[in-house]
Amino acid sequence: QVQLVESGGGLVQPGGSLRLSCAASGIMFRIYAMGWYRQAPGKQRELVAAVTSAGSKNYSNSVKGRFTISRDNAKNTVYLQMNSLKPEDTAVYFCNRHPVPFTWGQGTQVTVSS
After folding, report:
1. Each residue of 25-35: pLDDT tens digit?
2. Residue 3: beta bridge partners?
């Protein structure tokens, strides 16, 4: 049974930082590309960062230079370091296999506001 558990969200002021974690179970984590997605109110879910099984990374233009994705295959965990946060980064953040997702987890809320 696939389980993806996101954590690390919260309320942060503009310019602040957060580190999100996603613990995966029930999958052969190391063989899959993984992505971080986000969904803001009234908007479609979008991919913001992805990392391949070999460690290659790519980012959406909206977060490039501010966010860093990483993975620890020994811990079946993928991370998203978010710096220089902006109010438009406010969303629920999810992790999942990329590009074909498994069942979605609950996500973790990130709110950027002063």
Report:
1. 999 999 999 99
2. 25
Residue type, 57: K
Look up residue 82 and give its amino acid: M
CB 13 within 8 A of CB 112: yes
Model confidence pLDDT, tens digit, residues 7-57:
999 999 999 999 999 999 999 999 999 999 999 999 999 999 999 999 999
Quote the pLDDT of residue 3: 96
Phi-psi region of 26 (alpha: psi -120 to 50; beta: other; left: phi over 0): left
